[in-house]
Amino acid sequence: MKKTMAFLRSMKFGIILLGLIVVLSVIGSVIPQNSEAMVYVRAYPDFYEWIFRLQLNDIFNAWYFNIVTILLCINLILCSIVRFTKIPSQKQEEERAMHAKTAVSLSAAQRQEVIAELERMHCHKTEKDGVSVYAKNRIGYYGTFLTHLGILLTVIFWAAAMKLPTVIDRTCYPEESIFLDDGTEIYVRDFSITDAEGKLDYKSQIEIALADGRTSGPVETSVNHPASFGNYKVYQQTYGTAPRVAVSDDAGHTDLFYLEPNDILSADGKNGIVFDNLYPDFTEEDGHMRLVTSTSGRYENPVYVFTTLENGQQQEVMLAFPGDCMEIGKFTFCFQDPVEYPGLRIKHSPGWVNIALLCAFMVMTLGLYITFFMQSVLVRADHEGYTLLSAKSEGLQIRFRQITGGGSEHA
Amino acid sequence: MLDIIFFSGVVLYFISMSLTFSSVVFKWEKVRKISWVLFLAGAAVSTAYLVARSVKAGRLPLSNQFEFGASFSWGIAVMLMILHYKFKADWIDTVGIAMTFLILSYAAFQPRQINELMPALRSYWFGSHIGSAAFSYASFMLAGGAGIRIIMTEKKNPEDPRLEQMDYFMYRLIAFGLLMLTITILTGAIWAEQAWSAFWTWDPKEVWALITWIIYAIFLHLRLTKKRQRTFLAWYAIVSVPVVLFTFVGVNTLMSGLHSYGMIFRKELL
Predict the structure, then answer these.
(1) Which of A134, A162, A256, B83 could lock A123 by a disulfide, CB 3.0 to 4.6 Å apart?
(2) From start to end of chain B, where are the E strands?
(3) Is A169's pLDDT higher than 70?
(4) Residue A125 pairs with which residues in a beta bridge?
(5) Chain B residue with minimal CA distance to A370?
(6) What is the rounded CA–CA span in Å between residue B119 and residue A128?
(7) Rounded to two decimals, what is the model's pTM?
(8) In this predicted model, what pLDDT tens digit does every residue of A44-76 receive, in sequence order?
(9) Is residue B177 helix, strand or coil?
(10) How far is B234 from chain A, CA to nearest CA, in Å?
(11) CATH among 3.30.1450, 1.10.3470, 3.30.310, 1.10.12 for A90-137+375-404
């Protein structure tokens, strides 16, 4: 048991696990993840079966990846405990320094140089029985503990942040609402793709009404600036352009329809239009019109392509521009300016997850900073020379050698 | 005009690199000094270029492969000057100047036009996320450079007193690079949550940043246990440089993902 525990908390075990994560990550970056089955069949005809069998198509959620992560957490927990218990008290440190032997013998002049350097570094000095103990950055002892704890907390809360939220993607036309299962309503008041200066800037004006009756009031969601209310966050994710047709009857009643390719607008099934598609622009060459299928996302000169339906017979293909109207049977079809609509991502997650993860990030970063840039200093200086007692004092040792020219080191 | 400034920097670095190599081969001390002055001139010109481009674009020059490459090269130059002046570590000058030139040369082959920043990149995290990456990669490159110097010096004279300093600075550069990469990854995670709703999506760039982080974390652990195997660690630092370069160049050119800005327009990303 003791041996197992020693292995589980060992650096060797930690390095093996990190190495395994590297290997699995490389595989996961080379083989496309979470694609359709046919993608693997086409790309890897000889070993796609192994890809599915070994779950290489979803490697970061595979059971073995989870096991490696759990083992890494165990290693980090044990490492953190070991590192915390090894942090010495100030008294222990002073006593250790008082009883240490001189490691480097120096001449009086060299000794003065070392002491001057320690004083330049603003080390705290304690004197007793002719021995001076210089100490600085006691917080440095907490560095590796905080780093390991920070990584552990990051892994745990990161897993929580990946698993706990529910995320749904919805598109919605302006002035319509998205209704969620728990009774929450997200009303889309307006959507725009450019700002006042004409720069691309995708923004939706929305209003979130929670099931308990609380409402957010009008809020804006844009790329990088999601709207938050309750446990909901609404992200501006995608957008689309919807063609519209206003249909009026003889009595003056008008209905507005958003169109999808192959939609049929007809009251009796025999007369009306069959919508084909909306094109963003066109060019004219030698009197011929060419439709542009640009993917820039902008609809500079939208063109509607459709066929009329007369007495159940589809007629020839026709083009129309916004503002064009045509009478078919008892109805008038007026093609409108297409409307842009947002694709929103709606995320529901407990608020504590993000806060906990951000705290873990800070602990980890602070831990790394302390470990490498606030290293503790503990130096014993007496009439013979000095002894460096802090574990990570390599830089100081080099500095002392530079200023003293070496001195004679004892084994 | 901007192009003239940019290529002046490339040329100055090239001459500096040629002179510094000549000074090493022919032991011309005076030439070495001249090469350093030219390097400083190149760094000043590159700084001027990046400032001018920032003013013209109205943002930091970090949005595509060219801008990141130029900033990455500038990061190496800045760190090289800090090592030279603050820590008197001039043994790394030759390798460092070569690295500065090579990265800037790579940038020179990328499209240089200034594009409007796409909405996904308009965030307060833009500077800290990508800027820390530039300094992180610069540190790792210079650590690899220190590794090269250690191997060369050990072959020549295993008792060279500078070896201890080289080994120490290789370690410190990696420690600094790891801290910077941690900041890159964490700010990127926070930004990703604000932009795409998830802190982590296993996008190839994220995966390779994690791989790079782990590789250098392993280095720091190995250094604790195998402190005396300087040569092994020097080789480790050298061999890790291609991983950094792959994370910078390879992922963007060979793998498509959420970080493919400037390469293709992706409507779904806005």
Answers:
(1) A134
(2) none
(3) yes
(4) A134
(5) B179
(6) 65
(7) 0.89
(8) 998 899 999 999 999 999 999 999 999 999 999
(9) helix
(10) 17
(11) 3.30.310
